[in-house]
Write a structure and sequence with these properties.
This protein is an alpha+beta fold. It is built from 22 helices and 19 strands. A hairpin with a 4-residue loop joins strand 8 and strand 9. Helix 5 packs across helix 10 and helix 19 crosses helix 22. The radius of gyration is 26 Å and the shape is globular.
Amino acid sequence: MTQSLIFAITVLISTHFVAAVDITEGRPYLIFRKAGGYLLGADRLTWYANTDSWWDWSCFCHREYAYLELKGLGFHQVIDEVMFHFEKVGTGNKYRLRLGSNWRDVLNKKYVYYHPDKSWAEFSDRDHAAIFEVKSDGAGDKNNSKVDIVAQRITLESKFLENIRLSKKELEFLTYNKSDLYGLSKNMLDQMSKNAEKFKNISSSPENGPWLITLDTATEVQKYSNSSTLRKKIYEKRYQVGCSKSYNNSYVIEELRRLYQHFAELHGCQNIAVCQLQNSMANNLSAVDKFLENLVSRAVIKANEEYSILRNFSKSIGIQNFQVSDKLYVKNLYNLKQSQVNFTEIREYFPMQYVLNEVFNFIERAFGITMIKDSSNYETYAVGVTLYNVFDHDDNEYLGSIYFDLIERKGKDKGGWTSILRDSGIILNIKPILVIALNFDLDNKLSISMIAKLLHELGHALQNILSKPTSNEVLEFPSMFMQHFSSNFEIIRSFSSHYVTGELIPRSKLDLVKKNRKEFYGTSLLVQVYLSIIDQNLFLNINTSWSDIVADVRRRFNIPEVIGDTTCKFSHLFNTNYAGKYYSYLWSEAMALELHEFLLRDDDLSFNEKALRIRKLIFELKNVTSGAEAFKLIIGSNSPNENYLLEHYGI
């Protein structure tokens, strides 16, 4: 159905801002010229739209402009922890836009704007929250019901995350026995001491304690503490997150499942898993079930073998009664004994800027895409962030721009992600702008796993520059494909140059890394397969309680105790993109590995011919209607061969 959007925008403008409206292909932007600060919101905005659409807001600053874009209902994270929350107001069709430095601030009703000096300031709901009204264009109550469901889902997802946060807080505890913390680094003891003073308001020192163990830092304690009692206490508390007596997500999970079922029925689907197939690279749920079942049986065997290795090794280090809570501690000692890899030395061969340049050279040679550092004098949003413009190598056509925000800094979210700051538009020839955010160390030397993360995010960025993704599998496919170049050590070696001598990393060192890499890979695979099966069953068996579904899956597939259940705290399973299709991660990875085999095998086509074919069909989706069709044109099959995935995980 063609969706018409009519936007009536009324903005009360401060004397510090000049505002304009740029409506591009149904995507409205409020654009504020930089003049003393970036305003992240309007005083009042009324819009009229077909409510069959899901919309929210995102905002970013590029060069001298700040953009506020309407995109889809829900949370959307932007650079440096800016969060936007779309919520219903009262009983009518009015909604409020909240802005916060993070989702906690949003829930606490804090509103912020951003100054050029990078400082946050609060403003009041009454003065600056954007209030606007959603009106149907005549589609009737069905569309209004969809909007109501989305609004309820957002509230429940917020509650889910809040329960996790509060239960983590509830379950943290002080320890007074320093001998229990033997093996932890000085930095970790210092952090735990500061946490005790900050959150418990008591006097503490790194040397004498007491030390506060929070569940966000508990992994390090489990990994290094020589106290089995402390390790067990932490393990038990970690599995209460989201399921504690005071902050339990059971009700939230059941309500989210009910909402997704209702939403699916409004769209004429039997359930949300079936709805997701309409925009998926999987042909049907039977193909998904077969794929997961072929993986789980093999992964269970491998995970049990790996658990036995740890159990046997634990006896050699004096642990006679090995328990699941000892796994991280024993695994760490096992790796230290078995590994011959000096990871600090490995990093010396991969200075960040050299790696970045060589990765860009590789992308240009393989895919005909040129990346050039922006030569303008515009200030980026943080120190160390660089802007690169992307061009087609053959005709020098400008394709888009990418901000590279690669170094950790205070206040920056952990992990890595790619955000679309401005989407593309064909009619007005709007080119996309993205940010790749990672948290590399300040020493500017990269590990091979860091390079894998960089390649993964570049896959996301290049795909969004070259095409418009239409499904999660397509969304993850190019990122997985790019990431797995880090598994080809001849390619990785070409990215190396010792930061002092300039020499390539010796192949002998890479051989040791390769051998070390596959330790306990079977357990890692089983975690993802298990979550995928849980996800499918949660939305297929809507009349069975989530706890009974978990128990049934564990029984049917003989899931070992080493794979704990995280349904209460794993929000991905209830996210719009992944509810009913969490398997897309594994599906994409299997396809990417099979595509790598095609690219690197010896046959009549050269590497460059095959790489350019992959660019056209997979990244650009050129002359194809779906990613599934593109994959079939290259490989000759609708579904990925899971054997490539099993081989990658050492099974």
